[in-house]
Write a structure and sequence with these properties.
Layout lengths: L2 E9 L8 E8 L2 E7 L10 E4 L4 E2 L3 E6 L9 H4 L3 H17 L2 E6 L7 H10 L7 E3 L4 E3 L21 E3 L3 H14 L3 E5 L18 H14 L2 E8 H9 L4 E7 L2 H9 L5 E3 L2 H10 L6 H28 L9
Length: 325
């Protein structure tokens, strides 16, 4: 089992403590010792790495990963063939690891087996990437977020951006197929969204019966469930059905915010501010007039979204709450 001693580093240990000078000893895949101040005695056979004063910190965790997605504005998002999509996914996984992300909780893959195959290859040591909880395509309803007909593209038997399933029985079928293929998670698109849905963000096209059907299969297969929930009602629906991971929640009203706060010991809320921020920064910077116009048109809504996201995050994860770390 390999042994390493990292010396002359500024340690950020993730506990809230101020960074401090010290050394870290690693045995195999685990941190064995963190020492403040002078470096400890070098264990026999250990490889010493001089950090030259750089900061050493725990690996980052991506709680809303879409490792298999390509260009959000182009062909790659919806119609990239499986072979090219797998290569792209492997490249993205390496990029994530190189950027310091050592764990990823997938918020959906654009095809059923991309995450599953990637996870197996990473665990076998064949390709570099973060530890991964694998997901399948986002499960949506006709007209909901990810319904590719809204992008004037035909549906395929093998789903792309999302898998459209209407009614409890169809939802059960899709969930069973994904469980069969080896996913760790399911992702439900409860609310609408700006741009890729005929339902706006503050509406909830998925029904109680459809969500209940998905949760029935998830519990039987021992899968965790995450949900796209921008609307207040979708947040309440997710809480009623025991969904553990709620993304966005930026149109949550006082009732939904209170319910999220009351459930904070059993759920995780991921506002996903990065996309909103990037959209706001990209306004007017497109390489052609059409792209710039599209980006500019989304900014006012995106800016409002960012404000709501920030507010609801403050409400739910107040200072001192362990879940905020």
């Amino acid at each position: 089992m390999p042994s390493y001693l990292l010396t002359n580093v500024r340690i950020l240990d993730g506990t809230g403590r101020e960074p401090f000078a010290g050394a870290v000893r690693v045995e195999g895949p685990r941190i064995a010792e963190v020492t403040a101040g002078a470096a400890p005695t070098v264990p026999p056979g250990a490889v010493v790495i001089d950090g030259r004063g750089a900061t050493l910190m725990p690996g980052l965790i991506e709680s809303h990963a879409h490792i298999g997605l390509g260009d959000m504005n182009g062909y790659d998002l919806t119609r990239l063939p499986p072979e090219e999509n797998m290569v792209l996914t492997v490249r993205n996984a390496r990029t994530m690891l190189d950027c310091g992300y050592t764990s990823a909780f997938s918020a959906a893959a654009p095809k059923p087996r991309l995450d599953v195959v990637l996870k197996r290859e990473i665990e076998a040591g064949h390709v570099p990437g973060p530890r991964l909880l694998a997901n399948g395509p986002e499960i949506t309803v006709s007209g909901g977020l990810g319904d590719t007909n809204l992008l004037h593209l035909p549906h395929y038997e093998t789903p792309t951006f999302a898998w459209v399933a209407d009614g409890p029985d169809e939802i059960r079928r899709v969930c069973r197929i994904l469980a069969r293929e080896g996913v760790d998670l399911l992702k439900l698109n409860l609310s609408g969204d700006l741009g890729t849905s005929s339902y706006p963000s503050d509406q909830t096209p998925m029904t109680e019966g459809e969500v209940a059907a998905a949760m029935e299969i998830a519990r039987a297969a021992r899968l965790r469930v995450a949900a796209h929930c921008r609307s207040a009602e979708s947040v309440m629906m997710a809480l009623r059905h025991g969904i553990e991971v709620i993304y966005h929640a930026n149109y949550a009203d006082e009732r939904a915010l209170d319910a999220l706060e009351a459930a904070r010991d059993r759920i995780f809320v991921g506002p996903a501010l990065g996309l909103t921020y990037n959209l706001s920064q990209a306004a007017g910077q497109g390489r052609d007039g059409e792209t710039a116009s599209k980006r500019t048109s989304v900014v006012p809504a995106g800016t409002q979204t960012a404000a709501r996201d920030t507010y609801q995050t403050w409400r739910i994860w107040k200072p001192g709450c362990e879940a905020s770390a």
